[in-house]
Amino acid sequence: MNSIIAIDGPSASGKSTVSRKVAEGLGYIHVDSGAIYRALTWQIIRDGLAGASPEAIIRHLPSVTLRFFVEEGALRFTINDVDPGAAIRSLAVQEQVSAVAAIPEVRAWVGERLRSLKTLGDLVVEGRDIGSVVFPEAAFKFYLDADPEERARRRYLEQQALAGNKTNPDEVKRALLRRDACDQSRSTAPLVMAPGARRIETTRLTIEGVAAQVFEMIRAAPPKRLPKAVKQDGFIPFVYHLSRVFFLCYLWIFHRYRTHDRKHLPPRGGCILVSNHASFLDPIAVCCNIWNRHIYFLARDTLFQQSRFMKWWAISVGTLPIDRTKGDIRALKGAITLVRQGNILCLFPEGTRTHDGRLQSVKAGIGFLIEKAGVPVIPAYVSGTFEAFPRDAHKIKFHKIDTYFGKPVTPADCAVFKDDPDRHQKIADMVMARIAALNPAGKDVTENRGAGESAQHA
Ligand code: DC
């Protein structure tokens, strides 16, 4: 299998030169993923869609064709049969590229094309989300950074070489900071340090110095083997999808089931799906209308002991057992590994089903897990399952069930609490508040403290 080295970081952190050097040194193919976003932006401008709405850009995507080829160890491409060359570095492209790259459908489009390059050979891929989303399985991940002053200086020199005296250092710096903010705050695949990435501070280093550090780390560490994925432990996709379709038909027929805003679920990459918990029907209400991805669940281990069939079924559909009587570190590590490997894990932060239909407060542990996993968290609110089948009920009522998905809580949102000793509780409360905010009834249905308070401000 071909090997991948992911090099991510903000603009002008030294990624491009270092990636090129590393690829050269190892005989790998160098892939500049930013160039693809730039080329697409260039094409969009060329086709008269400068500043167009995301919807117009999404509609335009099928008319764009990228063709890749390898020349002297580097990846080259044409877009609609033209090599845009240095035009992708123009100010016009520069100004629009972040907005284009923030559109989830554009990211999926580029991501798919980047992943297809795996068949070409060993790759060094540079970008913003390479280690976190595009190639979470990369053998080595690096995150290059430098302070903003230094990055602005580098970008200014680069632009001057391209545009002569026409550039203004302050304007270059403002544009760079604006772009950084946009790349870091977008909801899909924001610029974050991928789990397991090695950070290299390049402010005071030469390109050779940074490349030397990368080579040293590659030589020193054997490719990191992630613990065995759950997939290999008995998960059978066919059983999962058959069960999913069965439950979907059941919900459609008996509960007039609808899902809303599924677009918030990323088509690829690891994430955590969190939902309120009112009933045994919640897991199916959350996952069974999601067709393109498999969703893993954590379930108390006693479920696996109920019968041999139950054990087989739970394992086949990819459920992870967790011992709820103690802090089950093994299960939590497994869960973190799972999402870091690019999967979706669904969790019910409240732990148990509500007794009265109101949301319950959450423990800090969930915030710890979210912080450690370092992936987007998608909130979901299931309504109607409490009325249909609350705890202690013996019969299911034919009540309407709806599931609402919300915008992801990004690692950047969680980083706001970075140095706060109570950050895990605050992250947990923030996530719970996002779930509460999806309640279409719009009222504060939270039981107590934290989550309820924050729900008012969500
Ligand atoms: O690395 P660069 O400056 O050429 O990137 C151009 C733009 O593309 C930048 O705004 C960030 C975006 N980009 C991205 O969102 N994801 C990537 N993997 C690479 C670039």
Secondary-structure map with pairings?
Layout: E1 4-8, H1 15-26, E2 29-32, H2 33-46, H3 54-60, E3 66-71, E4 74-79, H4 91-101, H5 104-115, E5 123-127, H6 130-134, E6 140-145, H7 148-163, H8 169-185, E7 198-201, H9 207-220, H10 237-255, E8 258-260, E9 271-275, H11 282-287, E10 295-300, H12 308-316, E11 319-322, H13 329-340, E12 344-347, H14 364-373, E13 377-383, H15 385-388, E14 402-405, H16 411-415, H17 423-437, H18 451-457
Parallel strand pairs: 1-5, 1-6, 2-5, 6-7, 8-14, 9-12, 9-13, 10-11, 10-12
Antiparallel strand pairs: 3-4, 13-14
Helix pairs in contact: 1-9, 2-4, 4-8, 7-8, 13-14, 14-17, 17-18
This protein binds 2'-deoxycytidine-5'-monophosphate.
2'-deoxycytidine-5'-monophosphate (DC) binds near residues 33, 37 and 101.
Task: Give the DSSP E fraction (strand runs of 2 or more residues).
Answer: 15-25%
| CATH class category of the largest domain | Alpha Beta
Name the ligand types: 2'-deoxycytidine-5'-monophosphate
Spatial sequence of strands, sheet with the most strands? 8-14-13-9-12-10-11
CATH architecture of the largest domain: 3-Layer(aba) Sandwich
Give the count of helical stretches.
Answer: 18
CATH superfamily of the largest domain: Glycerol-3-phosphate (1)-acyltransferase
**Principal-axes shape call:** elongated
Largest sheet: 7 strands, mixed
- Report mean pLDDT, rounded to a whole number: 85
Q: Rg from C-alpha positions?
A: 24 Å
The tally of beta strands, per DSSP, is 14
Instruction: Give me the secondary-structure category.
Output: alpha/beta
End-to-end separation: 45 Å
Count of separate structural domains:
2
Per the CATH scheme, the topology name of the largest domain is Glycerol-3-phosphate (1)-acyltransferase
Level of helix content?
40-55%
Q: Which stretches of 5+ consecutive residues score pLDDT under 50?
A: 223-232, 444-458
